[in-house]
Amino acid sequence: MSKRLKELRKNIRTLASPEISKTMQWFFKTSKGEYGEGDVFVGLKVPTQRKLARGFKDLALADLKILLNSPVHEERLISLFILVDKYNKGDEKEKAKIFSFYLKNKKGINNWDLVDLSAPKIIGKHLLKKSKSLLFKFALSKNLWERRIAVLSTYEFIRNDDYATTLQIAKILLQDNHDLIHKAVGWMLREIGKKDLRAEENFLKIHYKKMPRTMLRYAIEKFPETKRKKYLQGKI
User: Fold this and answer.
1) Across all residues in the chain, what is the average pLDDT?
2) How many other CB atoms are there within 10 angstroms of residue 44's CB atom?
3) Which stretch of DSSP H or E encloses residue 236?
4) Contact of 42 with 74, CB cutoff 8 Å
C-alpha cells in the first residue's frame, strides 16, 4: 500500500459521518437478505467522494485494486471515479488496460451506483465500436451486477444513436426477476425514447404487455399522461 493510498484512507476516515452512514446503509439495502447485504458505508456523500478522487487521481492501479476490493463502499466508488478519469485521459493502450482491469476486479462493483457511475463510461465507451458479445454474456449471467452492467453499458451506445444492443438486451431481460434490472431496462428504454420515440414505441408495442410493471413505468415515465395511462391499461 502506497503512502498516497494511506493518505486517502486517512482523509476518508476524517470526513466520515456516522449519520450519513446510517442513511446510506438503509438506502442501499445492506440488511440481511437484501441486494446490498453486508456492504459497509463510512458516510461520505458523492460530491465529497468525487472531490477526493480528483485529489488522488495519480493513484496507481495497484492501489486502485486494493480500493476496489475494499469492504468499504466509498473506497470502491472513489476507485471507480479515478478509473473513469484515467480511461478518459488515456491513449488506446491505457484504455485497453483499464477496461481489462475493470473486468478482472468487477467483483467489487456490486451495487447499483457503482455500476451506473462507471460501466457506461468504461465498458460502454470501450465497446462502442467493438464486438458487444461480452454484454450479451453478462445479460445471461446469474450475477445481478453483471446483468446491470450489461444494460447500463449500453447507455453510451444510446448517446451515440445506436439502440440495437440496448433493445436486444432489453428483450433478453424482459422476464428478469429482479427489481433493479426492471428499473435499469426501463430507464434505458426511456433514454432511447428521448432521442427516438418511434424506436422505443416500436419495441414497447410488441413487448409492453408482458413487461414487469416497474420496467414499463420507467420506460413510459415521460410520455403524455393520456398515452401513459393507455399503456398501463393495456390499451395501446
Assistant:
1) 97
2) 24
3) none
4) yes
Degrees to nearest 5, angle at CA 147 with 142 and 86: 125
Q: Which runs of consecutive H residues, i.e. helices, occur in 90-233? A: 92-104, 112-116, 119, 125-127, 133-139, 144-153, 155-159, 164-172, 179-195, 197-207, 213-219, 225-232
pLDDT in tens, 66-101: 999 999 999 999 999 999 999 999 999 999 999 999
Q: Is the pLDDT of residue 53 over 90?
A: yes
**How many angstroms separate the CA atoms of 179 and 185, rounded?**
10
CB 12 within 8 A of CB 41: no
The pTM of this model reads 0.95
* Contact between 77 and 48 (Cβ < 8 Å): no
Looking up cell 486517512 gives: 10
Cell 447507455: give the residue.
Answer: 155
User: At residue 1, does pLDDT exceed 90?
Assistant: no
Contacts of 183 (CB under 8 A, 6+ apart): 214, 215, 218
CA distance 156 to 123: 9
**Burial environment of residue 65 by CB neighbours within 10 A (0 to 12, 13 to 18, 19 or more):** middle
CA-based nearest residue to 140, from 150, 131, 130: 150
Judge contact between 98 and 64, C-beta under 8 A: no
| C-alpha distances in Å from residue 203, one per residue of 130, 157, 195, 211, 219 | 24, 17, 14, 11, 11
Contact predicate 214/179, CB 8 Å: yes
